[in-house]
Amino acid sequence: MSSASKLKLTAAIGFKGWREGLAREQVQESAFDLDFIEVNPIHRAFGPMARELRFDVSEMAIVTALQAQAYGKKLLVLPVTIASRFQHQCLITRKSATPLKPADLAGRRIGVRAYTQTTGVWVRGILENDYGVPASAITWVTQEGAHVAEYANPAWVSEQDDPRSLPQMLHDGDIDAAILGNDLPDDPDLVPVIADAAATAKAWFAVHRVVPTNHVLVVRQDVAEANPDALRALWRCLLRAKPAQSGEVDFASIGIAQNRPPIEMLLEYCAQQALLPQSVKIDELYAPARKLLGDEIL
Length: 298
Hints:
single chain, alpha/beta, D-Maltodextrin-Binding Protein, domain 2, 6-stranded mixed β-sheet, 11 strands
């Protein structure tokens, strides 16, 4: 197949390691050609993908993908972890204020970009299951709604039209803590609520053997079903493009078996936090992909 006759697929992928790997490896495939679309920050691609199917292939926050599946969006979720990280350091407060421990957070106000933000879901799950503080015991101050339009926040969420950043709201005393991800500020007065966050995360991993998934890969279902050969070629490309594992922890897992532990834990957290309209099972999540790709994605 000549390059002119390759299937052109628009792709919104922000994670550098995966994007560079796919760009490098796709030259070996004759069935498709990825046209990378620049979206910065990448979370700005998730709403358009969930609501409009804006791209053919897209990185997507796993909670957005779970909600999209639950609300019947025509997206095929691949068992590919694009980004993951430990989350204990992402809950911050002011060092100069009254010291807060996780158990002190009931009745407090915590800022987060959106209630459905995946980092926030992981942090709330840790608070509830490790420290006994459920999501409903806290007022969650948000700046945005969900990427999936059908979802409505629960009663314990207060969405505010406030132009200030979460760190500024913290400094102004309007929230007691905040959840931030890649945008954690370099500010000596803003410190993790969870003491010794890195060591605590390491101990948590030793118990659970889970690396919290943040972003996965989704494909438009109509494009995948109309072009199964291209989907299979994309899967081969993904296997070759996977960033190398560093040490004991694999932050870029691929395949249902490797993704099962974090996704099953996250599904439990989603149920606790009223994030899904009905129960979602992991095998249901990956069923459309397995139908087209077969057992090789196990």
